[in-house]
Design a protein that fits this description.
The chain is an alpha+beta fold. Strand 4 (49-58) and strand 5 (66-74) form a beta hairpin. It has helices at 4-7, 10-19, 92-103; strands at 24-29, 32-35, 43-44, 49-58, 66-74, 79-85. The chain has a six-stranded mixed β-sheet with strand order 3-2-1-6-5-4, sandwiched between helices. 19% of the residues are buried. Helix content is 23%, strand content 34%. It has a single domain (4-103), classed as PH-domain like (Roll). This is Phosphoribosylpyrophosphate synthetase.
């Protein structure tokens, strides 16, 4: 049996999300969400994206070492994840993009189990 900490590890959450169909990795570039793929990359505006869920992780030795993993669904059915540091170390471009998604009223659909 896994303990609660192990169950909530970034690797285990990513594995569960992959099993649930969140198979694409995303990044934000030039204000748009982009698939990280060498074959036919795709790009999305904030209006094309829904944050389905998110998970916060705290560093073992430093509580300031936090990251957030977002489960994302795009309007064409592409599902995947994007992660970002939390607080001081956050990537501003990723933060700005995800804030636009939230401002559009699409934050946290919580549709997957």
């Amino acid at each position: 049996m896994q303990d609660k900490e192990e169950e909530r590890s970034l690797i285990n959450v990513e594995k569960k999300l992959t099993q649930d169909g969140f198979t694409q990795d995303f990044n934000v570039c030039d204000g748009r969400l982009q698939t990280i793929s060498t074959e036919s990359p795709k790009s999305y505006g904030a209006e094309d994206v829904t944050i389905v869920d998110f998970y916060r992780f705290e560093g073992e030795s430093d509580p300031d070492d936090m990251s957030i993993l977002y489960a994302i669904e795009c309007n064409d059915g592409v599902r995947g994840t994007i992660s970002n540091a939390f607080g001081t170390y956050a990537d501003a471009e990723t933060d700005n993009f995800l804030q636009k998604v939230e401002d559009l009223g699409k934050n946290l659909k919580k549709a997957h189990k």
